Amino acid sequence: IVFPLQKLERFLVAGTDTTRFHLFEPGLAALQRAEAFFRSDQGHAIDYVSSAVRMDHAPPPALPEVCFIGRSNVGKSSLIRALFSLAPEVEVRVSKTPGHTKKMNFFKVGKYFTLVDMPGYGYRAPQDFVEMVEAYLQERRNLKRTFLLVDGVVGLQKTDHTAVEMLEEFGLPYVMVLTKIDRASRGLLLKNVLGIQEFVKENTQGCFPQLFLVSSVEFSGVHLLRGFVAHVTGNLPAVEAS
């Protein structure tokens, strides 16, 4: 549940290099500390702030920020709802219709960081998707990490390669997250993990080498992803995260 890559590691051929499986591997105490940021209480509110279609509508860049992007129907809003499951009063709309998210949706996590749900690209993307997202990525100075979601069943698609090229061109740090791992067989998941890791190694400069595997249904990997969000926003020191 906490470390899905460790579960997969047992099925690799002996001698396979698994260094990239363990780059971010915090202890349970650090993960519990990170979880506290995602649990609302009287002195720590987690709120939907606003939505925007243009940068001049975005809230002020006062806090460290992370954004989540991915193809329509990759499970982006479902994952964000899972991340905020400890604060059930936060409304993250999840639709059965791909491409439901048409705006940039900003969520403020206390006084610590902001999380942004971006419109999906590809099928049913908003007409002004490129203009909206490129402006955000290039202009948002408080953006600490972009989380690029990839469907764990189908792996990297042509539109995902385009997103990677955009992030690389802008020189932004990002990380890949494999969603829907509960729907993929073990063999298929291993194939996709190893293939994407090789792609990242050979073709990227700004991508964090470790993949994050998640299931919004079974909550696999959600705890670890919360920890990484806390870490990259400066709220979980590196000494606790390694």
TrEMBL record:
GO terms for molecular function: GTP binding; metal ion binding. It comes from the Eukaryota. Gene3D superfamilies: P-loop containing nucleotide triphosphate hydrolases (3.40.50.300). Residues 62-235 form the EngB-type G domain. The keyword GTP-binding applies. Keywords: GTP-binding, Magnesium, Metal-binding, Nucleotide-binding. The keyword Nucleotide-binding applies. InterPro entries: EngB_GTPase (IPR052279), G_ENGB_dom (IPR030393), GTP-bd (IPR006073), GTP-bd_ribosome_bio_YsxC (IPR019987), P-loop_NTPase (IPR027417). Signal peptide: none annotated. Its cofactor is Mg(2+). GO terms for cellular component: mitochondrion. Belongs to the TRAFAC class TrmE-Era-EngA-EngB-Septin-like GTPase superfamily. EngB GTPase family. HAMAP family: GTPase_EngB (MF_00321). This is GTP-binding protein 8. It comes from Formicarius rufipectus. The lineage of its organism: Eukaryota, Metazoa, Chordata, Craniata, Vertebrata.
